[in-house]
Amino acid sequence: EVLLFMSELREKMKMDMELRGYSSGTIVGYIRQVSNFAKFYNKSPKYLGEEEIRHYLHYCIMEKKLSEVTVNHINASLKFFYTKTLNRYWNVDKIARIKVPKKLPSILSPEEVNSIFDVTRNLKHKAILMTVYSAGLRVSEVCNLKITDIDSKNMQILIRQGKGKKDRYSLLSEVNLKILRKYWIRYHPTEYLFP
Asked: Has residue 137 got a pLDDT over 80?
């Protein structure tokens, strides 16, 4: 029965997510979570319902000691599968999301940041680190930067299709621009800034 999910229902769920424009990473993650749920009961998830979902989420919290974010990811995966793929009712009062504690991020002091830049000898690595730090980019965003995304005239960086498939601009600092110019002179990238 679990194998049935791996083929027919899995493909239906994948198509349902693709039709809604979900990213490939989200699709893979959601399908993995529903597959883990099916394996836990060794049954196709179409034969499982509210009580099994509640028990599984409780098991993930109490026994597996998974983080709140991970449990909510499992919850969202199962909710998508049951409401969109199987077109079933989802009782949010019975299958609630777990509360995620709000913590302030730990940030580096300017001295700590400078010490990281000081010990980074490789110019390419230094340019990458400085761009990530000064422009506030994610790793995937800095990997996808093209030379044409650096706008030195307006001192900004265009980030294409970042999180949530949204374009946005970030600031380009003078220090970052100097490092990027040095990097460009030495490495001569053609399309992507950091190939």
From this structure: yes
